Every structure is written in C-alpha cells, then in structure tokens.
Amino acid sequence: MTIRVLLVDDEPLLRMAFTMVLDAQADMEPVGEAGDGAEAARLAHQLRPDVVLMDVRMPGTDGIEATRRIVAESPESKVLILTTFDLDEYAFAGLRAGASGFLLKNALPEELLAAIRSVAAGDAVVAPRITRLLLENFAHQLPTGTGGGDDERLARLTTREREVLTEVGRGLSNTEIAAALHLAEATVKTHLNRILVKLELRDRVQAVVFAYETRLVRPA
Q1: Residue 165 pLDDT exceeds 90
Q2: CB atoms within 10 A of CB 38
Q3: What is the dihedral angle through the alpha carbons of 134, 170, 185, 115, rounded to the nearest 10 degrees?
Q4: What is the DSSP string of 115-181?
Q5: Contact at 8 Å (CB) between 57 and 79?
C-alpha cells in the first residue's frame, strides 16, 4: 500500500528536500505541500493523506492549531510533528493536540522514512519514556483535576485495563508492563487495543496524555 504524505513547512527548500526523499520510496507518495497551518488543514481535508508531516513554527496558523483541526476534521490522517528539541513545549503541545508522534528536524532520512511508516501503520513515534518525560516537564500546563480517576470515561475500563493504562502512563513498554503485571506481552497488546477503542483514543501517545490529564498518573 502506498503511503500518501502531505508536507507542511514554511520553507520551500525544506519541502523540496522532503519531496525528493519521499519520491525515491516505492511505498510513499507526496500528495501535496502547504506553507502554513491553515493551508495544511484545508489540504488535509481535501486530499485525505495517510500522514501529515507537520512543522510547528510557521507564520499565521501554526502547526499545533493545524494539528488540532486535522485531528478533528480528518481523523484518518495521522500527524507527525517536526520539532527542534525532543523535550520542548512544542512537542508536548503537539501530542496534546492529537499528533501521533514527533521527530527531530535533524533526523536522518532513514529515520524520517521509518517514522512515517510507523505512523501510517498506527504506531506512535515517540519512545514511551520520552513521552513520560515530556508530560512531567510540562505537567503544569495540564488541566487541574481532582485526581485518582474521577473522569467518567475511566468507568468504561475493567480493573485490569486500568492497571495497564496506569503502566502505559508511567512510560513502560509492553514488555515491561507484561513483567510488572505478570501477563503475556500479547495480552498487554490486547488490553491496550481495547483501552484505545473504549476511550476513543488514536494511539499509545494519546493514552499516556489521557492518563496524565485524568490524574491516573501524576508527575514524579
């Protein structure tokens, strides 16, 4: 299956470079380019790309607001945020807005291609522990909650699913969760998939954000 990619960056030369990299791949096709967030949201709605490669700092509508619009209006399109530093507030804001991951702008071409393929396949392109560190560093920007799982959405989960979600929020990988809860790794994956469906979340990253927003997990 060909992965259709929308490129969003206010620098034409950078978009050209990304296009050249994607054109060389048999399984990828650049379907459009946008120089600002408003145009990105419009093109995502029109073109329905599989992945949107999204710059953050752009004039006018920035990449964070564009990500919010795309997630709301074109949920089948996954957003991959491009950022300068792996622990900056833009990466954090992008994840909260619904991005499926983020990638450093100085990533190697093979890293970029691997990230696009992962996002297109439904995986999140952020190491679990990096997501946790992001949320801990910027937890003061999360809404204030009473803590401990008062959100009514948590009632949809079984006790075991809630335990798995807690460990996901703490930054553990599936292997680590399996060891901590004495489960098979395949069972952890099954629980996580059910959690995403029940809570109507896009991917693992959004599950981590949810765990922090509901205060199921608190910053260290």
Answers
A1: yes
A2: 16
A3: 0
A4: HHHHHHTT--BS-HHHHHHHHHHTGGGSPP---SS-SGGGGGS-HHHHHHHHHHHTT--HHHHHHHH
A5: no
Amino acid, single-letter form, for residue 84: T
Identify the burial level of 65 via C-beta atoms within 10 angstroms of its C-beta, where 0-12 means exposed, 13-18 middle and 19 or more buried: middle
pLDDT for residue 139: 64
Residue 52, beta-bridge partner list: 6, 79
Confidence of residue 62 (pLDDT cuts 50, 70, 90): very high
Residue 67's nearest CA partner among 37, 29, 108, 31 is 37
- Rounded to whole angstroms, the Cα distance separating 14 from 28 reads 18
Is residue 20 pLDDT above 90, yes or no?
yes
d(C-alpha 209, C-alpha 81), whole Å? 16
CA 200, 202, 206: angle at the middle one, nearest 5?
95
Q: Which of 215, 66, 51 is CA-nearest to residue 143?
A: 215
